[in-house]
Amino acid sequence: MRKRIFTAILGLSVFAALAMAVFSVWFMERDYAAGARDTLLREARVLDRERQKEAPDGYQELARDFAEASGTRVTIVDSGGKVLADSAADPGIMASHEYRREIREAREEGTGYDRRRSATTGEDRLYVAFRGGDGIIVRLSVPLVSAFERMNSAWWILIAALLCILAVSLVIARRLSHSLSEPVLRITRTAHRIAEGHWEQKVAVEGEGEMRELTQSVAVMTEAMNNTLRELNENNARISTVLTAMSSGVVAVSPYLRVIMFNPAAERMLETRIKKDEHIMDVLWDPNLEGILISVMRLHETVRREQRMGERFLRMAIAPMIQGEKTIGAVAVMEDVTELRKLEVMRKEFVANVSHELKTPLTSIKGFAETLRDGALEQPEQAKRFLTIIDEEADRLTRLINDILNLSRMENQQEAPGEPLPEPVHFGRLVEDTAEMLAETARKRGLELTVSVDPGPLLVRVKADDGRQMILNLVDNALKYTPEGGRVAVSVRNAGETLIFSVSDTGIGIAKEHIPRLFERFYRVDKGRSRALGGTGLGLAIVKHIVLAMKGTIDVQSEEGKGTAFTVHIPKVKLN
């Protein structure tokens, strides 16, 4: 015990010697800095008097002359912080000095001081600024020479004394560290191993007296910590697995709105890389979000809202994270409802379009029926014409309802992928049969209809009725929009693993701005002409659904006044 006390006293002696040396250096530095500051302030006042005699365009030359004569760096700054002159740099490229400490103090109090490391020279410098009566500030700076460089002979004496004290201290420290620190080091090494995941490590209980009590306490604590860490790691692994597997995005923030947890789905929905400790406003910019998060944490309420991210819609539920009586943050759970919103818009548009399309023939039927009821039946010729119109409108209404039902059936088939694949059909024969059905229509309209089908088994997977419907819609459209004397060409070509079906005409063509919307429901390029020809506005939408069901693609090329060409690429069925 005596040896330990002696060692402690010796250690305190070494500490006291070092503290005295440090204090001496600090005192000399402070004394030197104070003297240099007073000198620079006097020189700054002299320079300011000289400056006031000069025009502003002479400040740069004045700064250089004064710097050369005084051995200082001179800077002249206006009241806004703009550098007007500098003895060591081009003032035109220097940044504003408005927020430099010495400039700010001089502007407010008349004089200002600062001591900092220069970014230009890499040395500690003293800065003194003085404000003139006209608000212009002159600043002088000099390097601070270390106190060690000014101690001269005392320097070597101080070094020798410190080395002697260090040598003695090393001997004493070695003995003391060996007797006291070895058990502690063993405990530390064991703790590091445990922290690295080696849970089997145990702390050996050794030593005597207080040291034995210490190692025993650490052993108990280590065992408890091992159990706790193991449980935490297991919980973290479970949470991480759940978050990764979730389709909903999750972002948790601290009370300071810094990200503390997130999952991959959140990055996908927000279309950005999220970093831990990043401010939530850098992740998701919304002027209202910060206030909502703060309100959620303060009021302990859950807020549900919808966030628009460009073309995406995110539904959010933001709730506080509470531990005991303390709020430790907030968590936002996000769900991508973009497709849902699109479906809602499509549903509304579909209902509106269907209502409009149904209303037109019904209004016509009702109008002519009322006319017949009011006496037109007594005029045979007029009654016959009205009944013909009613019959045509009823046919049109039937076609519209059938097209709607077909479209609905196809969409339901796409949403039910478990349905068995249709049997392969010979697509070339379907084309030839359908073209034969429309040959008479083409003849009556004065059109040339040609069909070209490559030889060989052109098999595709499609329901025969659907395939026939697709061909019929495309060819019938070509016949409707081609003037008398025109030509409609239908072809089926074998292209390796793909079948190419095309329908081209020499008709009126389609303007470029209409092509992207051709396959939308109820979209018509010329609404009046389409209705007059008996079109429902659903024909090409049905074609698109059939092509998609066949896992094919459809392309349109058209030029106004020259004609249109529809090209369908369909994968063929491989024969065993």
UniProtKB/TrEMBL annotation:
Localization (cell): Cell membrane; Membrane raft
One function term, GO molecular function aspect: phosphorelay response regulator activity
Membrane topology: Multi-pass membrane protein
Span of domain HAMP: 178-230
Keywords from the UniProt entry: ATP-binding, Cell membrane, Kinase, Membrane, Nucleotide-binding, Phosphoprotein, Transferase, Transmembrane, Transmembrane helix, Two-component regulatory system
Catalyzed reactions per annotation: ATP + protein L-histidine = ADP + protein N-phospho-L-histidine
Record-listed E.C. numbers: 2.7.13.3
UniProt name for this protein: histidine kinase
Any single Gene Ontology cellular-component annotation: membrane raft
The UniProt record lists the keyword Nucleus: no
